[in-house]
Amino acid sequence: MFRYVDRQLQLIKSFYTGIGKSTLLFPTAFFAALGQGLVTLGVIFYVRDVFLATPGQVGSLTGLWSLAYIVGCIFLRPLTDGILPRYLLTMAACLECLFIALILLTGSFSTLFILYTLFGMSISFFWPPLMGWLSHGKEGPELGRLMARFNFSWSVGSIISPFLAGLLSERNASLPLFTGCCLFLFAGSLIAIASLTLPKIRTDRAVYMKNKNGQQGEENSTPLRFPAWIGVLTTYTTIGVIVNIFPLYALNTLELSKRSVGLIMQNRALVGMVGFVIMGRTSFWHFRPAQMLVGQFLLALFTFLLMTTRTPFLLGAIISCIGFFMAASYFNSMFHGVSGSTNRSSRMAIHESLISSGLIIGSVIGGFIYQRFSMVHVYGFCASFMVFGAILQGALCLRPISGRRVQEPVDSQ
């Protein structure tokens, strides 16, 4: 009896001490993405119902959020290089919780602008360090599989959050923000507890000191990161319109319910998750520029189709297809951005900054075009911008196709 109990305790201890960063960060990414999805869609419903915001104001609000995220990723990141990832993630999650709580307490729209901007800046301390920490030391197919599991984790949160935000908003406009606030607090608590108790998580100090002392190996990045970055910028311009402007169009012009809008957004995220799984489980697209170009032109085609579509079912189907190609563009940028790099956090910061730049362009310009003209003009702008980006991608890909370092980088770890 005592021997059996001792054996079970040893198994529990072995499992507990063997928990590494992947086991911690995958659920953390889920809860953070769920909270962020609730807040980013919920705030649109919130300012529309509570402050009677116009489409231009909503576009400016979401664009300013994205701009703050870019500033945090690029200009504030050097200030946090000396902070261990586990501490940085805990701090970021707590700040996100704080700013959303203050948004719910304020009665001033201008103050809400400031707080939402600070919220966007606080997120810049979360995702790039998390992805850099998670992908450290991984290359090739192993890196692809790891990114697939990571993308699956946060995608599940993104799938649930739109429909949940619409459902909660129909009951009370503040409920999505309150729920997101609680999820950020939970994610921060999860990392804090793991940082204090899990032996393997505490070893990230050795990784940090190795990187700080320049013992990272040889830089062997692929030039395909540049066309991949252009692709993610143009893609997320359209995503900025779909996430931030389309809900207003669907509510005001198409007269859809909030629940229906949330369901359309949920389906887009679901198909995007399928795209992440496919990209992660295959390697035929690694270091092949042609698939990037085909994806961008197909994405532009689906956006053009939105110009002539008003039926909710067809809108949902087309937006879901856009979600699939969004996943492909995202994965290309992430994979080719960090592959062969010795500074993963910086590359992830560039990746995230380009995503936010696209969201800014789509939200701000799309919001003003919609308010001044129509949604058809907004779709036309997005599709034209993607075609222009695809042409730039083709120009950049001509050199790597016949040049060097298109192959998989050698793992220098």
- Domain count: 1
Distinct helical segment count: 15
CATH architecture call: Up-down Bundle
Tell me what portion of residues adopts beta-strand conformation: under 5%
Q: Give the termini separation.
A: 46 Å
Overall residue-averaged pLDDT value: 80
CATH first level: Mainly Alpha
**Class by alpha and beta content:** mainly alpha
CATH topology: Growth Hormone, Chain: A
What is the percent of helical residues? over 70%
In CATH, what is the homologous superfamily?
MFS general substrate transporter like domains
**What is the rounded Rg?**
21 Å
Shape: globular
Biggest β-sheet: count, sense, barrel? none
Total number of strands = 0
Give the SSE string.
HHHHHHHHHHHHHHH
| Unreliable stretches | 8-18, 400-407, 409-413
Verbal overview:
The protein is mainly α. It has one domain (16-402): MFS general substrate transporter like domains (Growth Hormone, Chain: A, Up-down Bundle). It is built from 15 helices and no strands. Helix 3 (55-76) runs antiparallel to helix 14 (344-372) and helix 4 packs antiparallel against helix 5 (109-123). The longest helix has 32 residues, at 140-171.
